[in-house]
Amino acid sequence: MADGSLPENRDVSSANNVAGESWRLLRRGRYFGLVLTILVTGRCVIDAEELPAPSDLKQKLSQVSAPMKTLGGRQLWGDVHFFQGWTIQQNVITGHYRLLDPRDVRHAWGSFDSCRKKLDDIRGERKLPPMQGEAVVLLHGIFRSSKAMSRVQERLEKDGYLVVPFDYPSTRVDIATSARMLGRVVDSLEGVEKISFVTHSMGGLVVRSWLGQGGDDRARCLVMMGTPNKGAEVADLLKEWHLYRLILGPAGQQLVADQSGVIAQLPVPEIPFSVIAGGKGTADGYNPLIPGDDDGLVAVSSAFLEGADDSLALPVLHSFLPFNSAIVDAVSRYLKTGSFREDGVRSSVERRTSLENSINAE
User: Fold this and answer.
1) Which long-range contacts (CB under 8 A, 24 or more apart) does 22-27 make?
2) I want to staple 57 with a disulfide (CB 3.0 to 4.6 A). Which of 53, 246, 315, 341 is the partner?
3) What pLDDT does residue 75 have?
4) What would be the CATH architecture of the domain defined by 132-361?
5) 201 has pLDDT over 60
6) What is the band of 45 on the pLDDT scale with cuts at 50, 70, 90?
7) Which residues are CB-contacts of 343 (< 8 A; sequence separation ≥ 6)?
8) According to the model, what pLDDT value does residue 65 have?
9) Helix 202-212 / helix 175-187 crossing angle, nearest 10 deg
């Protein structure tokens, strides 16, 4: 077809046939733009679910209900519902939904209602218990997925929390849109009494945006690791580069250290929060392009948001913060005691007056 859409009249007999036909079309160049998107987001495989398709074809495809392992494409999907490790995700290109189990096997695909009905059926068949107690929502940074928070997840599950690894399409949508997706997931946590948040990098900004949108009365505390709370100088340097804009999308443009930018307008959390920064412990840090100490991407001064009731800086590079054992221990300890340190001593980040802020901005 001249417009590059998938052929409408064909028999969809299996998910494998759909994937095979989709791949043939891709090879013929009809979805070059989508191929480019997947390549720049680090995906080397194609999932047939990710292809835009006419509504009648989507209806046919939604009838392919056999469980099937997903093939990736995490930058195109965002979580909107959670129950005991099962998630309903929405595709940001096509708008359709899929239901995944804790092993990333797809059990339903189509509308939100159809995925929700399938989840309700599974709850009954498998006698899944209701959620309760305290949940901890994990948020990864830009260009990453919930897998980047696996070390933290393992530890907090051992601590007895209901851990919610939140996936969001960080390179395809802006921060506020990711925050609204987070809101839908939080709303789905029925039966949970308290909700804490542990975040890495831009994930902390998503939670701050969500709190500014109204939040939830059950929100207990927030831990931010390497979050550019005052912007990232690296984004300032790269924001005009075409490749940077292409790969990191609208959210990448919002990471700049601009007094009139999105980050500067985010409210300081009103719930208890703490910050962890990576730094070399020297005046110049790991990256000579960033003023002061830094973790290679984010300055310590940017990670240390005023008002934090505890703070911690360790010699760890930005991407490795959520994998560092000392940091994972500190996060676990903070959620239990309110302090990163074994002796219970806190190192708060004092709030500056509006006059001090205006002087530093000049």
Assistant:
1) 22/46, 22/48, 22/51
2) 53
3) 87
4) 3-Layer(aba) Sandwich (3.40)
5) yes
6) very low
7) none
8) 58
9) 70
